[in-house]
Amino acid sequence: MDHSYGIVPIYKDGERYKFLLVKSRAGHWNFPKGHAEAGESDVKAAARELQEETGIKNLELHEDIFFIQAYIRVDGPETISKTVKFYLGKVTDPTTHINDGDEIVDCRWEHFDEALALLTHEESRKMLLEVKRYLGTVEI
Predict the structure, then answer these.
(1) pLDDT tens-digit map of 38-87
(2) Residue 37 pLDDT more than 90?
(3) DSSP letters spanning 4-18
(4) CATH of the domain at 43
């Protein structure tokens, strides 16, 4: 079982939310995520990965609000069960910076419909729908 941690970054654009997606070197669009380092908590790993992949530091992280993705990934002859725990994070400054040579080659802030269309994997689209439903019930 492989575990990763990430953040669904949101930014309030007037009355609508924008979501930050990152594009991997392989060409997949998703939310920022990665593995925890030794001794690192889930939340710290998620925040560090967001900062490493997008340069975003200013984050209001909602530790009690998270969404789980679980799926099977095929890596050559190996089948890997993967779980990713995504926290909801409100960003106050949407400025991003991608590190040259990193695994992330692009990032975009998009409104819901555009983000849904841009996401590569069905699991991510389902999760974004869950996030939208949640955001419709609260003021973040």
Answers:
(1) 999 999 999 999 999 999 998 999 899 999 999 888 888 989 899 999 99
(2) yes
(3) EEEEEEEEEETTEEE
(4) 3.90.79.10
pLDDT at res. 73? 82
* Domain interval for residue 19: 2-135
Q: Helix or strand or coil: residue 22?
A: strand
Number of domains in the chain: 1
3-state SS class at 5: strand
Which residues have C-beta within 8 Å of that of residue 86, sequence separation ≥ 6? 5, 6, 7, 8, 31, 33, 46, 66, 67, 68, 69, 127
Distance CA 91, CA 86 (A): 15
Residue 45 is encoded by which pair of tokens? 């790993």
Q: Where do runs of H (alpha helix) occur along 13-100?
A: 42-54
Cβ atoms of 94 and 81 closer than 8 Å: no
Residue 140 lies in a domain: no
Closest CA to 87 of 62, 114, 57, 110: 62
Cα-to-chain-centroid distance, residue 92 = 16
Token pair belonging to 33: 């995520």
